[in-house]
């Protein structure tokens, strides 16, 4: 039985409302209704009063079909945006099937794909330990994969399986991303970074050149190979004391054998390329583009003086100028036939270099002035020695990195100093400049632009090490260390895929805006587009704000998505992902037995 309001129009033209108690019954296959009682005309009551009457009646009838705000009970707020997008892209790449296929011959007792997906989502939502993930799983919107309970040890075991199938999985990802993103690999970028470990049990852990500025801790090296758009192709984990150049042969072998890449240009830093590695690249058919540090022997003072006029350089987009210089002008002992050199100049970087140097010079002068005044004051005890004073001066200037730019003298208790303007002028020639070496026949502009994209790898390392919090690593087992890093790289892959898809649609929208005939409308649309030129990190941060709510209402439990922001809607549209239903699931709350 339930309450029902019936409206009736009388001959006088007025409409009256009557409240009836109605009962449903079945007659054969037909469901019918009959009036049990009429509670009379309720037209004189307000909507609020009518609602209260109905609630009271339904409570008495013990068969409630409507409710009030008092019946709504929010149980939990869930992270929704990131899990929803990652699950869509995950399914698009067919990762669950790929993982299951790779493990088909193994006796696996749990769904590894389910655990890997949860770790990847968690790395993007709240990068932290597997233990914290296990304790906060209920805070994530995760699909029901059969309803089997989560087990902490399965997260760690999933890392082992993930490393075992890494080659197969990377090949599948490469093939599917090639189709999905429609790219042909003609340029690869490679770089190396390190992350430190806690403990001394991992066989890979070694002391080496620490890019995390923790030389006291053991570390591992991570080599990452990416496309120009930043999509990771493969990665390798090396012992912490391996040098850059030692890692190149393994990467070249994988590029050739595992991914069947027959022709592409290898882009890396100076430390990557030795005579042996260049021979390997030639054998593999990979030309190279490598950079040299501006204070290296390649970028000589003579070269910088000869090509000091930056107005002679060619303009390139993204605040970069370039000039191909004759090979004869470059002092390179490894010079080979067909090698070319491009000198590059970044005006913005030049201004930053000059400002940084001037700040360091001023700080050094302040320190020297304070030291000179201190030495001039008479003091009791032993007088400072010439050697002791000059050691203090050397320490001060070295800490500021300006030891080459001052002339300092200490005589008869008086410290004098002045800037070496000739040395400063010579150093200023290096501001914002770097040299590129290549054996390709690409135009110089393409070479310069290709090397500039190497910064994409630097951003990738920044994302993996900072935003995705790859380290410090607390696993002691080598397999677990490799698995943890693989999960971080997978998380970065999804973040970068979001950025690539989003920016391609953004570029299309910009081209459409630029074709608008109305200047005012064009300016308005372009300004709006510029305000949402998102990185992958910005996309993830926006998606993190999008939540879902698990709640109960009367005898139903449901998951409802909160209203998406305009930014989140634009992101979904750009990624080609459908807007989710407002209500994701509805289930009946299990009835409680008297004993419960």
List the helices and strands and how they pair.
Layout: E1 2-9, E2 15-27, E3 30-41, H1 47-61, E4 72-79, H2 81-93, H3 95-102, H4 112-125, H5 130-135, H6 152-164, H7 166-181, E5 187-196, E6 219-226, E7 232-239, H8 244-257, E8 265-269, H9 275-284, E9 288-292, H10 301-306, E10 314-316, E11 320-325, E12 340-345, H11 347-376, H12 386-400, E13 406-411, E14 414-419, H13 421-428, E15 433-438, H14 444-452, H15 455-467, H16 478-514, H17 519-530, H18 536-544, E16 547-553, E17 556-561, H19 566-575, E18 583-588
Parallel strand pairs: 5-8, 8-9
Antiparallel strand pairs: 1-2, 2-3, 4-16, 5-6, 6-7, 9-15, 10-11, 11-12, 12-15, 13-14, 16-17, 17-18
Characterization of this structure:
The longest helix is centred in the C-terminal third of the chain and has 37 residues, at 478-514. This protein folds into 4 domains: 2-64, no CATH class; 183-346 and 432-476, Transposase Inhibitor Protein From Tn5, Chain A, domain 1 (Alpha-Beta Complex), CATH 3.90.350.10; 350-429, no CATH class; 502-588, no CATH class. The chain has a 9-stranded mixed β-sheet with strand order 7-6-5-8-9-15-12-11-10, with helices on both faces. It has 19 helices and 18 strands. Helix 3 (95-102) packs across helix 4 (112-125), helix 8 (244-257) runs parallel beside helix 9 (275-284) and helix 16 runs antiparallel to helix 17. It has 596 residues and is of the alpha+beta class. It is elongated. Helix content is 43%, strand content 22%.
């Amino acid at each position: 039985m339930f309450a029902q309001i019936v409206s009736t129009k009388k001959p006088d033209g007025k409409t009256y409302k009557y409240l009836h108690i109605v009962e449903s019954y079945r007659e054969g296959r037909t469901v019918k209704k009959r009036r049990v009682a009429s509670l009379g005309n309720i037209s004189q009551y307000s909507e609020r009063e009518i609602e209260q009457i109905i609630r009271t009646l339904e409570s008495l009838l013990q068969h409630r079909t409507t409710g009030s705000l008092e019946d709504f009970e929010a149980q939990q707020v869930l992270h929704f945006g990131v899990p929803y997008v990652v699950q869509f892209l995950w399914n698009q790449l067919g990762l669950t099937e790929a993982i299951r296929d790779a493990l088909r011959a193994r006796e696996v007792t749990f769904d590894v794909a389910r655990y890997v997906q949860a770790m990847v989502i968690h790395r993007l939502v709240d990068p932290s330990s597997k233990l914290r993930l296990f304790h906060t799983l209920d805070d994530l919107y995760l699909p029901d994969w059969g309803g089997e309970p989560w087990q902490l040890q399965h997260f760690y075991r999933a890392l082992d399986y993930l490393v075992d199938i890494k080659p197969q999985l990377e090949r599948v990802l490469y093939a599917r991303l090639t189709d999905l993103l429609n790219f042909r690999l003609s340029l690869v970028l490679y770089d190396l970074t390190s992350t430190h470990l806690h403990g001394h049990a991992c066989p890979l852990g070694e002391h080496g050149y620490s890019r995390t500025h923790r030389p006291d801790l053991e570390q591992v090296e991570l080599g990452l190979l990416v496309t120009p758009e930043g999509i990771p192709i493969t990665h390798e984990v090396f012992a912490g004391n391996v040098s850059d150049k030692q890692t190149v042969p393994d990467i070249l072998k994988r590029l050739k054998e595992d991914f069947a890449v027959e022709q592409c240009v290898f882009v890396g830093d100076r430390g990557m390329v030795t005579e042996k590695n260049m021979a390997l690249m030639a054998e593999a058919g990979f030309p190279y583009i490598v950079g040299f540090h501006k204070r290296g022997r390649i970028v000589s003072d003579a070269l910088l003086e000869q090509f000091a006029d930056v107005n002679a350089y060619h303009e390139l987009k993204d605040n970069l100028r370039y000039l191909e210089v004759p090979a004869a002008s470059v002092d390179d002992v490894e010079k080979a036939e067909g090698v070319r050199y491009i000198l590059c100049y970044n005006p913005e970087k030049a201004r930053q270099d000059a400002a940084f140097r001037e700040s360091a010079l001023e700080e050094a002068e302040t320190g020297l002035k304070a030291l000179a005044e201190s030495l001039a004051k008479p003091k009791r005890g032993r007088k400072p020695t010439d050697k002791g004073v000059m050691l203090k001066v050397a320490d001060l200037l070295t800490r500021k990195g300006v030891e080459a730019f001052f002339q300092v003298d200490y005589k008869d208790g008086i410290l004098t100093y002045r800037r070496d303007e000739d040395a400063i002028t010579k150093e200023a020639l290096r501001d914002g400049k770097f040299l590129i070496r290549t054996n390709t026949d690409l135009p110089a502009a393409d070479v310069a632009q290709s090397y500039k994209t190497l910064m994409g790898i630097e951003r990738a390392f920044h994302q993996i090490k900072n935003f995705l919090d790859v380290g410090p690593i607390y696993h002691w087992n080598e397999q677990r260390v490799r698995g943890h890093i693989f999960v971080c790289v997978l998380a970065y892959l999804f973040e970068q895929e979001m950025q690539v898809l989003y920016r391609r649609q953004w570029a299309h929208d910009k081209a459409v805006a630029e074709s608008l005939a109305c200047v005012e409308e064009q300016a308005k649309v372009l300004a709006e587009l510029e305000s949402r030129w998102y990185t992958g990190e910005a996309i993830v941060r926006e998606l993190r704000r999008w939540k879902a709510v698990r709640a109960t209402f009367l005898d139903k439990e449901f998951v409802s998505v909160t209203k998406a922001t305009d930014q989140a809607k634009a992101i979904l549209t750009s990624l080609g992902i459908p807007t989710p239903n407002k209500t994701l699931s509805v289930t009946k709350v299990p009835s409680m037995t008297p004993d419960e």
